[in-house]
Every structure is written in structure tokens, then in C-alpha cells.
Amino acid sequence: MPLRTQEVVQSLMQGSWMRLEEGLDVLRSITQDGVVVTSYRISPERFTFSIVLQDRSNGSRVETIGEREGAVLAFNGGFFAQTEDGSLYSIGYLKLNGEVKSKGWREAGGLILFNDTGLELLPTHSGIPQSSNDIMQTRPMILEPGGKWAMGSNLGEIKHRTLLCKMKSGEVIFVLVTRSGMSLYEAGWMLREKELGGFFGCDSAVALDGGRSTQVWYSGRPEYSYSGLSTVQNFIVVRQNEN
Asked: What pTM did the predictor assign?
């Protein structure tokens, strides 16, 4: 296990989940080196997940999208690129409301399937499902279903991170790493079982766009929001379940 991951895990173990509202908990830790990890545990029985695109061609901020959509939470989503005139467009497979917005990668990364019971995370190599579900492709796939380690590199670049984890119980956990940041390898290891030196024990996990894109908006207490450093092209929005 990476040394910096060990320090983060020890810090997380000293904290405890705090209830923000029914079906939504938060856990925050700060290491002596200034690595801030803020995690949001979400029950799919209480909340629904959806993809929302930018409302301006040059990208949007998460707080704008969250407020506009009447969300409880909103996070930056998958990867994107920029044209010469500053317009942002998605890269990675993205299907929304039956329309394929971008074709994506043949083998790399993982797929986030948005369905009535929450989210499902699958490796791209399993094939893109032919269904009506909205789908977002991102990379890398960190853990394949069953907790199988899937990340094939040990990139050491320290950045802010946005990670998405699905538990065996069906609960969804978003993990944001800010301030001092972590490498993708360090952050990914944190998602593994405690018996392997991790903390969260995710059944499956992917990385969302990180670095300057990392951002979250919470409609309740502002200290659990993080505005990030740039506009982004697409978002994952969490709303209260209408049922």
C-alpha cells in the first residue's frame, strides 16, 4: 500500500460518517500533509442519479447546475476537451435521453449506467449495453465488480481527484480528494477493502475527471461544497427520489 494512502486511511479511520439528511452521509478527513478527503454516501432508495450537460458552450460550474436542477448534490462528471473557440465537448462514450453524444473508447475505462435502482459500474471491455439507460464512460476503471483491482498503471502525478464507488449494498459513494491531492494510484488504493490496506471497501469504482475539474455542490451546508478551478462539460446530479 502506498505510504500516503496509509496516512489518509488512518485519518479516515479516526473519523465517522455524519448524517446530512436521510439517506445522505458525509465523512471528511485531513492529514498532516494537507490531503483533504470528503466522501458522500448516498442511498439509491432515497435519491436518483442523472447526467446533466453544461448550460453554456464554454462549460458550467457545479453550483450553477446544482441550483438550476433543484439538486441535493452535484459533481463534475466525465472527461471533455476544448475547441479552438473555447467550446467544450465530451470525450468518452456518453448517451443521454437515447442520443449518443460521443462515441468514446473501445477498451479503456469503465461505464456508468444510470438506472431506476441507482448506478451500475462496468468495465468497457464487457461491452456497451444496448439499452435505453443513460451511460457515461470515464477512466480509469479502478475496481471491477467484485472488488477486482483493474487499474493498470501507477501514475504518480498529484492532483485533485473525483472518484465514484458502488458498494455491494447498492449505496453509492463519491470521494473528492482536494488541497494537497493524491496520485490516482494512491487514491484508488484507498477504495479497496480494509484487509488490503484500503478503507471504503468498494465493490466497483471508477475515476471521474479530476484535477481542475474536481468540484461538488451540496444544497445544504456550504462547507461541504467545493467550487473547483474550471468550468466543466458534464455533471452527475443527485436529486431526492420522488417516490
From this structure: 0.96
